[in-house]
């Protein structure tokens, strides 16, 4: 019986030592993501605060009770706390110090247990429970750190785009057989710099595309938009939260319909993405 207890304490002490080594190895991985995640977290916090300010203004304009404002504020605080916790578990304190304290507590309990014959008043069951509790808590922290590292590895920041007409929602209304110049806005709403992006704006065959500061091209029958006329321009660089505006000149068809306009963007990091807008012609 005594031998089995000593073997258990020895196993716990050995396991604690191994896990301390694992936490240090984990930090070598988490540290590689820490700088990037710190930069992104600051931006995410700022966006969350801006979104909260906008929501509060909307709620105040609607005259909603103070409880609604408190609810939105509490939700924003929870989101910011979650972002801070994410950084903490990638840092030295969260990835190494916190779980190591638990393993050391477990190790100390195990070592005392192995020498319990020198301390007759010490409870073996208490030491066993203490060692297992510290070990379990440290293992939970270790799993949290691994989860945060996995999330950071998967959530690679890439550019994301939003396309819309300037000063208009999704549908641009204009007269039939009208020649006009409208402004197309391409916003990088992602978390990384967009580089070497090719933008193609596809118009139905019934539209006339007027030449301006962009290239024009008529799509062939083998393309996704056969016979569509395309305005093509390049975006060399687009930083997060910046908007690139391009003026495009068209002549609308002689009808009163809603026409679908497709915008294809090819970017070096995010690949291909496509967006749909509409132009409505009226009398």
Task: Describe the 3D structure.
The chain has two domains: 2-154; 161-282, Immunoglobulin-like, CATH 2.60.40.10. It contains four helices and ten strands. The protein has helices spanning 2-62, 66-88, 92-114, 124-154; strands at residues 161-165, 171-175, 179-188, 194-203, 208-210, 215-218, 229-238, 243-251, 258-267, 271-282. The strands form two sheets. Strands 2-10-9-4-7-6 form a six-stranded mixed beta sheet, with no helix packed on it. Strands 1-3-8-5 form a four-stranded antiparallel beta sheet, with no helix packed on it. Strand 9 (258-267) and strand 10 form a beta hairpin. The N and C termini lie far apart (96 Å).
Q: Helicity level, as a percent range?
A: 40-55%
Number of helices: 4
Strand order, main sheet: write it out. 2-10-9-4-7-6
**So what's the overall shape?**
elongated
- Straight-line distance between termini: 96 Å
Low-confidence stretches: none
**How many discrete domains?**
2
DSSP, total strands: 10
Radius of gyration, CA atoms, in whole angstroms: 30 Å
Largest sheet: 6 strands, mixed
Alpha-beta classification: alpha+beta
Strand and helix order: HHHHEEEEEEEEEE
Name the average pLDDT: 87
Instruction: Estimate the strand proportion.
Output: 25-35%
């Amino acid at each position: 019986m005594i031998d089995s207890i000593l073997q258990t304490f020895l196993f716990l002490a050995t396991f604690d030592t191994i896990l301390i080594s694992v936490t240090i190895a984990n930090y070598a991985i988490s540290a590689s993501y820490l700088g990037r995640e710190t930069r992104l977290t600051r931006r995410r916090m700022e966006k969350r605060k801006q979104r909260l300010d906008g929501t509060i203004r909307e709620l105040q304009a609607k005259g909603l009770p103070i409880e609604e404002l408190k609810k939105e504020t509490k939700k924003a605080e929870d989101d910011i706390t979650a972002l801070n916790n994410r950084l903490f578990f990638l840092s030295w304190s969260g990835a190494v110090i916190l779980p190591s304290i638990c393993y050391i507590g477990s190790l100390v309990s195990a070592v005392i247990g192995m020498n319990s014959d020198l301390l007759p008043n010490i409870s073996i069951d208490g030491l066993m429970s203490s060692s297992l509790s510290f070990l379990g808590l440290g293992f939970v922290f270790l799993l949290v750190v691994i989860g945060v590292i996995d999330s950071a590895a998967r959530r690679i920041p890439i550019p994301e785009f939003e396309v819309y007409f300037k000063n208009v929602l999704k549908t641009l209304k204009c007269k039939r057989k009208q020649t006009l110049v409208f402004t197309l806005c391409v916003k990088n709403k992602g978390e990384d710099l967009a580089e070497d992006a090719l933008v193609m704006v596809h118009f139905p065959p019934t539209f006339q595309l007027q030449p301006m500061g962009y290239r024009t091209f008529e799509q062939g029958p083998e393309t996704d938009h056969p016979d569509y006329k395309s305005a093509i321009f390049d975006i060399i660089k687009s930083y997060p939260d910046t908007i690139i505006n391009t003026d495009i000149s068209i002549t609308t068809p002689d009808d009163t319909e809603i026409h679908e306009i497709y915008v294809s963007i090819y970017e070096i990091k995010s690949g291909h993405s496509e967006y749909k807008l509409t132009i409505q012609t009226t009398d």
